[in-house]
Amino acid sequence: MAKKTINWIDNMPELLSEWNYERNDVEPINISIWSKRKVWWKCKEGHEWLSSMNNRQKKVGCPYCSGKLPIVGLTDLETTNPELLKEWDYSKNIITPKEIKAGSGIKVWWKCSLGHSWSASPNHRTKGRGCPICANKVVLLGYNDLTTLKPNIASEWDYEKNGEKTPANYIVRSGERVWWKCKRNHSWEAVIASRTGNKYVGCPYCSGLLPIEGETDLLTTNPELISEWNYEKNTLLTPNMVKAGSSDKVWWICDKGHEWQAVISSRTVNESGCPFCSGRYAIQGENDLMSVDSPLLKEWNYDRNGRLTPSDFKEHSARKIWWKCKKGHEWCSSISDRSRGDGCPYCSGKRVLVGFNDLAHINPYIAKEWNYEKNGNKIPQKYTCKSGIKVWWKCEKGHEWKTSISNRSRGDGCPKCNSGIRTSFPEQAIYFYVKKIYPDAVNRCTDVLPNGMEIDIFIPSINVGIEYDGSVWHESDKALEKEVKKYIECKRNDIFLIRVKEKGGNARENSCDVMLRIDDSFNNEAYSSLFMQLSKYIKIPNEIDVKNDRVHIQENYKTEIKNNSFGSKYADLVVEWDSEKNGMLTPYMFSSNSGERIWWKCCKNHSWQTTISTRAKGSGCPYCSGRYAIKGENDLQTLRPEIASEWNYNKNGNLLPCEFKSQSNKKVWWKCKEGHEWEAIIANRTRRGDGCPVCGKNP
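The chain above was modelled as a monomer; its predicted structure follows.
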């Protein structure tokens, strides 16, 4: 014993410092560390309390400092919540408000200003809760009971069915469900609060809510329906328990044994009959999917449809069902939509499935130009190749532009890099495979038809031309008229013309010898289908795999562009390409028949603008050829200064006499020495000598 006592004194000096020598009649050395005898302690704040040594060695400290007991004048209820003192029941409580805290869970007695007495913890009261009797949460006979406050409703209390329950036992807002009986002896159950609220609820039979047997029940009002009442499935419910206008859904059975559920009012008001006999529901063995051997059976998803089977539905049912295609894709769709021809939304490209038909998977070549910075949360894995959404792109040269994903999938590339070259990926894919069989095939041939008219793909060895008409460039009436004219020239040159149109693209009669279509999904299946059609007219490779050959097609396309570009075909004119004014544009970006207006500079440093096709046709420098005026040599200012002196600088704006030749047919403004102003063609003034029409004088 002595050893244990010495141990706690030596090892726990902090406890020894709180030993209350004044109030304890025993010395610390005589108390064991395991003693349960309560002794007095005193903390450094001067708080005194009783606790055993056994508790203290468990790290239990001062109950006042820790907040477990109130500090009078600081944390006691009287100090923190003086407003509650007026309801403290001093006669029933053995403690005072100074001996308990506001957060205590100990129940004490209270008394309100009306003398109602109840018990509740200070913690409960400090949360704003008052007298439960005044609040009508607790019943007090003669004060807030049903009999006292609602004697008219209490008079309908069914004492026989309610047993020991009486209206004096409940408040008017009680949620108790009890039995009632009206003056006509109708008996029913209802919650007390439902009868005492603002909306008075009386007898449901007298008010017509429930049927009165022999008067308003279905058995009495609609006896013709009773033969179809399904007593077996409706269990406890019978026709004399419901009204004709009831919204209850019950079971019926017709004379043919068909069973179905229907709202009672739908049968009495809408006069609906058996949905099987009327053809609205499937009859197993007659008109269900299984019986009619529907093609949808092979895609029925038995795993996800659970108990539902094809035998439960007709072909045109609006019920949404799970399906599974031969590729394992699962989706939900109505049977009627499927019967109308809707197939797998993933295989058809209507929905995206990552790793199957998303842009990044199908067309990584295009996806690598996705502009992640400008597209924000949009990523190529969220869209199919057919998506019409417009997003931002960025080519390897840093050019940025916005266009739809479907346009990119059709072959549209960077508008700056491809400026002047109107072609598409499908056209290049066709050329790629045709070239494998016909080495002499030419892309964008301009050497066969007159006036540089172009054939997308021409095969000289068999005299066959192939035109690919993308919807972007071949939808207008003007474009369709050009197609007809091109075909006329092909016939004159004995060229068999095959025209390939995108699905849904417009077409004119007499625009080709053969019209083929390509599906706008532009997947492997679409290209395979197209080449199968082409095989009827030309030879094609055994293997067509656009997905795997896409990069090679693009590389071949870029090579063809360069080889067939204006720069490659007209190297002698490249020296006149004005690189300074044309910026990033180069002669290798355009075909020789391009209508793009470009800046040129001759060996004499004359600068002018004209189309690439004009240069390819032999047009040279308009200054050197005398078509344009050369300042200081052949311009109006130099050759006819007397006429130039009447040039009207105000009305002619930026036009100057040194910019025009004396034979120009340009109509400009003039002003004579007298101030008269008039318009006249330059050549009329220099050749005929026309002067001021008012003065009648020549300059």
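Residues 1-6 have pLDDT under 50 and may be disordered.
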